[in-house]
Please model this.
Amino acid sequence: MEPLDLSTFEYNVVERPLTIDDYDELKEMAELCFPGIPSWTREQIESQIQMFPEGQFVIEIDGKLAASANNVIIDYDSKLEWHNWKAISDNGFIRNHKPKGDTLYGIEIMVHPKFRGMKLSRRLYDARKQICRDKNLARFIIAGRIPNYHKYAETMTASVYIEDVLNKAIFDPVLTAQLSNGFAVRGLIPNYLPSDIESCGYATYLEWTNLDHVPGGKRRFHSLVEQVRVCVVQYQLRTVRNFDEFAQQCEFFVDTASDYKSDFVLFPELFTTQLLSCVESSRPGQAARQLAEFTPQFLDFFIDLAVKYNVNIIGGSQFVIEDDILYNIAYLFRRDGTIGKQYKIHITPSERKWWGVNPGKKVEVFDTDCGPIAIQICYDIEFPELTRIAAAKGAQIVFVPFNTDTRHGYLRVRSCAQARCIENHMYVAISGCTGNLPFVENSDIHYAQSGIFTPADMEFARDAIAAECNPNVETLIIHDLDIEQLRRHKEAGSVQNWNDRMLDYYHVAYHEDGKDFRV
Model:
C-alpha cells in the first residue's frame, strides 16, 4: 500500500476580503439563502468594498464561496431608527460608514446551503467581534431574521415566539445561533423586511458588547498576553459496534472543546484500537494491519471535525501501512482544512514484538494559526534529543498522545514531559487512554493521568502543572497557555537552560533530508 495522499482528504478553507470578482457567486448564494428577497446589486457591493473593505469578507472552501459577511461602522444613538435597515445601511451602499464610529452594524451574513452544518457562521461572527476589538468599538449590533416564526405565527405573537426561543423551548436556525454567539435580544422590529415571508417581516434587534472596549481610546490597547487555549482529552476505551459509534464519542469531545473556544484538542495514542472490537479477532500483528484499514475513514472524519468545529485537532495516533510497512502516525488536522503528520520515531520493545511497528526518521514542527507546535508520540518524549530538535525548529508547545498500561509507564511519560518543559522553555500537553480492551493484545489495560505542564518558575503554576485530570476516569481539561509569557521566561527566567547550554562541549547532531544539522 502506497502512502496515502493527504491532499485528497484536505479542505482548502480561506477567510479573505470580499472582491468585486466574487459578485456572481455572491448573488447566486443570496438567491439560495434568501429566496424571494432581492439580492445585492453590483453597485452596492462595489460601494461597500470602497467604503469599508476590511468589513466585507468571505469564507472560501476549495475555491467555492461558502459564506459571507457585510458590515458598516456607525455612531451609536439610542434614538436611531434601528428598525430601518435601509437607513442604517444607506440602502446597502454604506456611504454613511464612519471609520471613527463606535458601533459595528452587521448588514448581512450568508452561508451557502451546501456548506451548512460546518459552523461557518461562528467563524464570521468571531471575525466581526475581532474587528470590534481591533478598532476599539463598543458594541456590535445586528438585526436578525426569525425564519421559523411562520410555523408558529397563527398560534403566538412574535414576542412570545422569541421568549420561547430564549427559553430553549423552540429552535430558530438564526436566533438560536446568534444567542449562542453571545448576543442579547434588545428588541423586536416589525416590518423590517416585508418581503421576508418566513420571518413574517419581523427581525430581532441584537447586541454584543465588547468587554475590551476602552472609552475614549482611539485604537486597540494591545495586551501583553498571547493566549492559546488547549483541550486535553482523557479517553476511555470501550467496545464499539462500528466506526460510527467511535465517531460519535470523538465528536462529543471536539464539540465540547469548540464550545469552550479551544484552539487545540489532543486525543491519546492509539485510541483507535477500540475499533478492533468491531472486526474479527486475529493475532496482534494482523490486528494492527486490520486497524490500519480504517485510516482513510479516520482521516475523512477528523478533518471534517476540524473544519466544522473550527479547532485544530491532534488526532492521537493511528496505525498506517505505507509500502507494506506498518507505522504509528499522529495526524494534525488544522481548522483551515490542511493535514500534517508525525511518525513515531522510537518504537517500544512491545510494539516491535506484538505489532511489528517501524520507526519514522524526522521531527516535524508544524505551523498553525497559534504558532509552531510539535507532536511526540508517547515513548518519543522520553528522549530529550527529539525535543531539543523541535525547540530549535521553533516549537512552543509539544503535544504528546500516549498509551500506557501501568502507572510506571505513565510516570515515565509524565516525568519526561515535565523535564522537557524545563530544558526547552516550552509547554507540553499529554493525553492518555483509560479503560480496558480484553480483546486487544498489548493494549488491553490502560493507566493515564493526562495533563498540561509548564516550565518551573515564578510566573507559572506553583508546581509547574497548568491543569491535570483525575487518574483513570474519562474526562477533559481546558487551559489557557500564554505564549508571550513563555517568550519572556526564555529571555529572563530565573534559570535559562536553553541559553546556558555548553555548545562548545556538547551538542545534538542529526541527519535529515540528506543534510547534517547540529543543535
Summary: DSSP finds 13 helices and 23 strands in the chain. Residues 496 and 518 are 20 Å apart (CA to CA).
